[in-house]
């Protein structure tokens, strides 16, 4: 979100680009059955299969699988949200009775938004794009593989920052992917050392990752390398000050 919001503002200022609006709802409205999530998923699956060099039967299978994901995932998440409704109502009753009616916010996992059709479309498109960026990016030493299926969790909030516009989301997520690959390259030595200390056998290479939670870990490692223990204390104080400010601001708005 820290990157998506200013990028979205920048895209609004670029003539031509600010007129492009692409999301599954608009596609379905303008193209009818061709814009159905099933058709979109099928086409995306075929494109990814073609880029991967699959034979025709494998491409068709991947297309059907992608179509099923785009169609079924939102339904599954919708059912999950319906199951949370009684929990939310019970929480409200509890806070009203025992906490003087104070409002309580419950933090949820990003899994709640991965079923959104714009999020899924963006994540599927970003799989081949991330691989391509990883190959051609100068100075990058990380080639994502195991993390590719979990890109949806790392990119979900970026899609929200672009208001579900798939075109802007792909552009913004491509820029974010570049930062993630460089961050993952920087983090690799420290992460590999941690694995060795823990007794894991990982061969002669190094390991890293490019999904959600990467930047906080990179920040902690950078500050620690730069300032050692005092750096961690400074980072902790900054975090507490920010939390205090946000909490105070929310009280004023309430």
Structural description of this entry:
This protein is mostly helical and 254 residues long. Helix content is 70%, strand content 0%. It contains eight helices and no strands. The two termini are 24 Å apart.
Q: Secondary structure elements and their pairing?
A:
Blueprint: H1 4-13, H2 24-31, H3 37-51, H4 56-98, H5 117-136, H6 151-161, H7 166-197, H8 214-253
Helix pairs in contact: 1-7, 3-4, 3-5, 4-5, 5-6, 5-7, 6-7, 7-8
Can you write the helix and strand succession as a string? HHHHHHHH
What would the principal axes of the Cα set say about the shape?
globular
Number of helices: 8
**Sheet bearing the most strands, described?**
none
- Average per-residue pLDDT, rounded, comes to 80
Low-confidence stretches: none
The oligomerization state is single chain
Short description:
This protein has helices spanning about 5-15, 25-30, 35-50, 55-100, 115-135, 150-160, 165-195, 215-254. The protein is mostly helical.
Primary descriptors:
254 residues, mainly alpha, 8 helices, 0% strand
């Amino acid at each position: 979100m820290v990157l998506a919001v200013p990028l979205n503002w920048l895209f609004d200022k670029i003539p031509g680009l600010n007129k492009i609006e692409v999301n599954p709802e608009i596609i379905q409205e303008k193209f009818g059955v061709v814009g159905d999530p099933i058709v979109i998923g099928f086409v995306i699956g075929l494109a990814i299969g073609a880029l991967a060099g699959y034979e025709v039967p494998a491409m068709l299978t991947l297309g059907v699988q992608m179509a099923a994901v785009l169609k079924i995932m939102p339904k599954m998440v919708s059912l999950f949200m319906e199951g949370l409704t009684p929990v939310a109502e019970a929480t409200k009753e509890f806070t009203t009775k025992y906490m003087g009616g104070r409002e309580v916010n419950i933090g949820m996992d990003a899994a709640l938004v991965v079923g959104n059709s714009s999020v899924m479309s963006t994540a599927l498109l970003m799989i081949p794009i991330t691989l391509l960026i990883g190959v051609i990016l100068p100075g990058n030493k990380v080639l994502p593989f195991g993390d590719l299926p979990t890109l949806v969790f790392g990119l979900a909030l970026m899609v929200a920052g672009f208001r579900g516009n798939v075109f802007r989301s792909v552009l913004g997520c491509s820029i974010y992917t570049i930062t993630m690959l460089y961050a993952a390259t920087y983090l690799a030595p420290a992460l590999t050392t941690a694995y060795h200390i823990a007794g894991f056998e990982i061969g002669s290479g190094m390991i890293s990752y490019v999904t959600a939670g990467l930047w906080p870990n990179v920040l902690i490692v950078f500050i620690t390398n730069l300032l050692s223990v005092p750096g961690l204390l400074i980072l902790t104080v900054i975090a507490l000050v920010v939390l205090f400010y946000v909490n105070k601001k929310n009280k004023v708005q309430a």
